[in-house]
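assembly run, all chains below
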Amino acid sequence: MKKWSAKFSIFTALTLITTVLVLLPFSNLFFNLFNKANDVWIHIRTFLLFDYIKNTVLLLVLTGIFSGLIGFFSAYVVTFYEFKYKKLLSWLLILPLALPSYIAAFIYADMFSYTGSFARLLRAVGIHHNFDMMSLLGAAVIFSFTLYPYVYMLVKAGLKKHNQTLTDSAKLLKASPFKRFRTLTLPLSRPALIGGILLVLLETLNDYGVVRYFGVRVFSYAIFDAWFRLGDLSSAIRLSAIVVIFVFIIVIIEKAFRGKKSYNILKGHKPLRLKHPTKTGRIIIYFFLISILLIGFFIPTIEMIFNLFTINFTLFSVDLIYTILNTLIISITATLIIIVIALAIANFGRFAKSKLAKGIVKLTTLGYSIPGAVIAVSVLLFFTKVDGFLYPLYELFDKDTKTLVLTTSLVMLTFAYVLRFLTIGFNTIDASYEKIGTTYTEASYTLQKSKLKTLFLVDIPLIKSGLIAAFIIVFIDIVKELPLTLILRPSNYNTLATTVFIYARDEMIQEASAPALILIIITVIPIYILTHQKRGKNHVR
Amino acid sequence: MKKIFSFVLLVSIVTLLSGCALGSSSSDHVITIYSDRHYDTDQAIYDTFEAETGIAVNVVKASADELINRLQTEGEDTEADLLMIADAGRLHKAKEAGLFQAVSSDTLVTNIPDNYRDSDNLWFGLTKRARVLVYHPDRVSVSELSTYEDLADPKWEGRIVVRSSANIYNQSLVASLIELNGEEPVETWISHLTSNFARDPEGNDRDQAKAVMAGEADIAIMNTYYMGKMANSADSYEVDVANDLAIFFPNQDTTGTHINVSGAGVTAYSDNVEDAIALIEYLSGEAAQFEFANANYEYPVNPAVEPSELLQSWGSFTEQQISLTQLGLHSNAAAIIMDEQGWK
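ok done. output:
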């Protein structure tokens, strides 16, 4: 076995190239830190930094608690209780993933504003109270209701492994329902719960659309504010470095909370005996689940459909069709590149034994924890340097060439997508590899089949469903992506996400509705396929 | 399936490498304008310009800060011949960054009053907006209102809304007051003004008017442009807001109401200077100015053109008589003072 891993293969080559390409932009960031502090930075540090830190912590704590509660209890209810329409509800609960947080923010801000439908409804029934949606609390609520599916999916998958035998034993020992919940259910699902909350928090840190629109001064707002308003890239870089420290703290806290205890769950367990709720219980369950769905998905979607009718908006203008094509083409391309690289890294990683190799795999896939604002700054700096470096080469082809060939092309944006979403593709593919083990692949190598042949003839057929899942998850994320696309796109290149954001920024919420709805349709379809493909018992993710 | 797949892949790669966004047009005689204006009116004016001169206008749209940043990154490589953005402070920022080149044109000098042009002829104001007070007539009587400076008076405690200090129009308003009153008085003014805020600044200009309508505050500091937008909104409830609230032009007996402009300049590395100047001249001419005024609720800079009926119905007023170049000079100081005095 040593023979194969020691040999330099295409997988190793791709992994190492990726590692270098991932590390270069970030190293740039790091070295800029040692420049002397300028006036803008001193200004930020004196008057703004404290606010940024306070708001970021507050937003993360609130969003973590809310999304954790919503995600955990919805997963708990659909796992342990039997009620009508459970199947339907348990997949609908994933739908808010299709609704980008920033779209929910635009729509709710509009509905809660004085002329909005919700505020008018309240006034009609005599309530003259203004709910301040455009605030830190409002942002936390928006994030919680649109991102809780991460918690829901992970916890649900965790709870499914629950063993009826354990519950029965606990019952025999006369443990009260609350005690059983506290000492059995909660510890067993804690890793999933904390893991889910981690994803929600990383997404929250990454967001730019919501916080910019609401004017909530957190870090991704601060980075762009320093860069664009105060015109100081070096301050933006310093702020980025602080965010990266934030991310590491969160990841360490997650590791600590997850705990080292591992629970051996007996194999071949009895299926869960589902509880039948009382009538009141059913009402509470329906009320709970349906409220989540309404707030997290259906109310904003329906509001947007109504918006379409209030303005004379042609649903399919030529511009919009180009925008849709742009979105699909770049999302599919970037996703394919990510899948190929992720496959190579997964192959490299699963035969690697050394700590160094494992470290390389970790480094290469760290992108997802780095907020989009930070990646945007690093990638732009990196590409202007690369273009300067490659300029003599460009001149060979065209004497009057411009310098910034790559920087003004879609290559830069695609690169940034790969940097950020490689983690997700890799994790999904790696999990599939873990399930099949290495035996089949090793057998093929023993039969003198080449690495590539083995990949196509043995590995890919075995992990096909995992690959499809990876493709869909990455695709959805790229379609929804905002900050990177907004900053790194070439002139006049619009995706659905940027179109929606620009309309909203220009105070044209009604006009934003058509592209927003199309974006949602494009993300809902793959989610449906993903959750309904036949993969044995595992229905969700 | 495989065929479709490889086709998609091929198309993707080709688009990716060519780096061209679908839908961009190409013509022989063409100038590129980087614009943060996203109005149909502008496009209509460019179309007429093309019909009259044969010069096609290729518009690249993004926010002003993004465009300035992009021009800086692109340097000599830029395709842009013109940069057209809102706010004199930003125009000045572009000037300081060396993004413009000087233009000498008699037409521009005749069409645009000198305080709405850059002192070195690097940029030219094309449309004006006034930053006014919008109030609820039931809760505020006109006799109570006077100046921007008066908004620091304790009688307005908890009655004023305005958007955040990150908003460039607020920065420029503060910069103009620094020019007129000096830095220290403005510091004191802002520290009192912020204590009169009804809430922490949030939302856009329209949201400020809606807050007054909702009774959260009595006065909003905002641009006339958005009152025009609301008065003609597709949303009838917004029209009600515009109709129920009233506009007051402050500082009429003193320094005049604060004016800001959208303007344009020829980029430093334009390779089509003549056509670019032709477009700015056209935009400052009576035909284009009439379009700006009537379709877009902006005040024309060209004194020969009347504002639209709606704008005239708000009444005529005395404008701040400072050169807008000064707004740019004080804009950093303004941003710093606002942060220091807690204007969020």
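The first strand of chain B starts at residue 30 and ends at 35.

Residues 2-128+260-305 of chain B form a domain with the D-Maltodextrin-Binding Protein; domain 2 fold (CATH 3.40.190.10).

not gonna interpret more than that til we talk
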